[in-house]
Amino acid sequence: MKFALDRSSTVPLYSQIKQALIEELQEDERAADLVLTEASLIKRFHVSRAPIRQALKELEDEGYVVRHRAKGTFPVRRVNVSLSPTLELGGISSYLTEQGLKPTSRIVALARVTAPDEVNEILDLDTDARLLYVQRIIYVKGIPLVWSSTYLCTPPDFLPSMVELEQAGTMFALVNQQLGMTFTRGVQNIWATGANTEEAEALEIEPGAPVMVSATTLYSRDGKPAGWRRAVHRADDFKYTFGLNR
Length: 246
What we know:
The N and C termini lie far apart (50 Å). This protein has helices at 13-27, 38-45, 49-61, 92-98, 117-123, 162-168, 171-179, 197-203; strands at 65-68, 72-75, 81-83, 104-114, 130-140, 143-152, 183-194, 210-220, 225-234, 238-240. β1 (65-68) and β2 form a beta hairpin. α1 packs across α3 (49-61). By secondary structure, the protein is an alpha+beta fold. The strands form three sheets. A six-stranded antiparallel beta sheet has the order 4-5-6-9-8-7. The protein has a two-stranded antiparallel ribbon with strand order 1-2.
C-alpha cells in the first residue's frame, strides 16, 4: 500500500505513520504475517528512527502490535467472535462455521482420568471416580481461540479413539451416537482473569494476558449433573451477546 507523508502538515510524522500502518493492518488480509522492523519502516517512509519508534510504541500501547525483543514487531492477530447465549452445548465449531470462519481444532488429550476435587464435588462423585476427559483447542485462521477441558460421566469401559472423536465432531455428539447419552442443558459461570502459564502457551498469548473463562456444569436428560467443562477464551477475540426480555 502506497502512502506519502505530508511533511507540511501540522500532524506529526509519527502520527501519520501510525495511521498509515493501522489502515494497512485493518485492510490487508496478509497483514498478520508482517514483521515490522524499524529499519524497513525508516527506508519505506524516508524518516529518521525517532518517529518510527514513537509510531510503533503507540501501536503497541493501543494493542495493534506486539513487540518481541530480538525478533521484531508483529501485528496482533484478532478474530472478532460474538457468541449467542442460545449456543448449543458443544456447538461452538458449528456456530463459527455458520459465521464463515472455518474453524479447525486440535485434540490435546483424550483419556479416562481421576477428576479434580472441584469437579467431583460439583458432580457429587467419589474422589476415585474416573471420567472421560478431552482437552481441545479450537482455531480460526490459525489463531487459537478456545482451549477447553471437558469431563463426562460415562461407562468405565468407554474410551473412544481420536479418529472417532474427529469424525463425530464433538464429544457430545459422540456419546450420543455410541451411548445414547444426551446432555440437555448447562449452567454456566463466566469471569475474566489473567492467563496462567499453561493457558498462555495453549492460546499463544503472554502469561497474565486477559482471558475469559467459562465453567459449565452439564446436565443429562434425567436432570442430574453428568459433566463439567472449563473453556478459556482469548479475551480480545470474544464477546458474549445477551438478550433481555421485560
